[in-house]
What does this fold into?
Amino acid sequence: HSFAAEFDATKCQDFNGKLTAIEWQNPHGYFHVDVKNAAGATEAWTFQTVSIITLKRSGTTRKDFEDNIGKNVFVRGCLAKNGVKNRAAAETMKMTDGQLRIVGQEVEHGGRQEY
It folds into this structure.
């Protein structure tokens, strides 16, 4: 599953919302965030991570995600190419401990928002 086959590196954006669940599985992990859209309605988003072993090697654990369920997180993600609504590949995630974690493929783009 290559990033480029499923996600569009030219359509990345920043998300802010409540972490609601994780799926700690191979070949990729997933986490779910309730994000308020421009109209103020809540949308459930699904974000794909890199492989679990890659997360562990970078120092991000399942417990990091579990400890933040129900809390606000900031995510940088790139939208799905196939147009599936509310699905993205996560690049980075800032949890309540304040550390910015790389949880996906790093994407070259301009205008990255600093959290």
